Amino acid sequence: MAASRAFWGRFIRRHPGVTVHTSVGQSLTIAGQVDRGEIDVGLLQLFEHRQRAADIELSREPLHWVKSPDLILDTTRPLPFIAFDDDCFYRQWAMEFGQSRPPGFTIAMTCASIAGVVSAVHAGLGVALLNARHVTPEMEVLESAFPLPPTIVYVIRTGRKSHSSAVQGLVEEIVGETRADGSSKVA
Length: 187
Description:
This protein is α+β, with helices and mostly antiparallel strands. Helix content is 29%, strand content 22%. The chain contains five helices and eight strands; from the N terminus they run H-H-E-E-E-E-H-E-H-E-E-E-H. Strand 4 (79-83), helix 3 (89-100) and strand 5 (105-110) form a beta-alpha-beta unit. It is elongated and about 60 Å long.
């Protein structure tokens, strides 16, 4: 979902008096910032059942349990889980699942970056939850041993007081740049 240089150029030409500050963080952090009015627009990844009526859906994809084919799971002991940081909703969901079903999970590694989690899975450090675009041919998708995770949606969420023409213009540019069908219609 990377924005092209043309995207920023178009937005700046249409709104020359607007300053845009971009910050990257976990979706739960960004959602909180939008809700508190600290930022006007957030591009979030979340479980589909957490989507709000006012969110603008950009795309969706499945989430998968994965591991290295070399990792042998001992189901008599807590399973090693490769996690993003504490504010990651994947981690929260997995730990809830792990607490309710023996043998549960133990955190084998925590890493804030997708590249680090993917590398740890390849190295056989544990199981992880990854969205489909990050599952590689070198990984084994675990379909029967774990519950099916919820579907992931990518949405744009705007703050309750963020109704300026600049915010609407930014949202329309993001939608046009990131939607799979290329449409920029915002309801």
